[in-house]
Amino acid sequence: MDHYHIHPLEPLRFPLVARFYKTYYPPGKPKKDEHIWVVDGSCGLCGAVRFQPRQDYQLLTGMLLHPHLRGTGLSHQLLDAVQPVLAQRPSFCLAFRPLTALYAQHGFSSVDTQALPEELAARYQSYCHSGKDLVAMKYTPKA
Predict the structure, then answer these.
(1) How many other β-carbons are positioned within 10 Å of the β-carbon of residue 102?
(2) Which residue intervals define the domain N-acetyltransferase in the entry (predicted)?
(3) Which DSSP symbol is given to 9?
(4) In the chain, pLDDT over 70 holds for what percent of residues?
C-alpha cells in the first residue's frame, strides 16, 4: 500500500502542479496567489486542492487526484488534512453535482445563491449558464 504525504505546496514546485492540472484538468489552471495543498506519493505528485483567497472568504477549487487514484479514499484524506485551512475563514466551493456527497461528509452543505458573497454568486451564475452542473456549498466547522 502506498503512503501519501499531504502538505502545503512549496513555491518552487508550482510548475509541477501547473503541469499536473494541464495534464488531467486543463480548465483548472492554478494561479500563484492561491494557497495550494498537494498529495505526494511514491510516484510523485498524486493530487492537489487550491484555495483562492478573497477579502472576506476563500474558495476551495480545483480539487484533483490522478485518475488512477480516484475512488480510493484519497480525496477524503485530502479534505481531512485541509480542515484547519477551511476553518480559518468563511469557505465555499462550487462543487460538481456528483461530488456534493463527498464535500458534505467534510462539513460542506448546499447554500442558496443569496447566501454567497456577491462576486461568487455572479461567478456561480455564469458557470451554470455555460452548462456546468454545480452546487454552491459552504463549509461549517465541526463543533
Answers:
(1) 15
(2) 1-141
(3) P
(4) 98
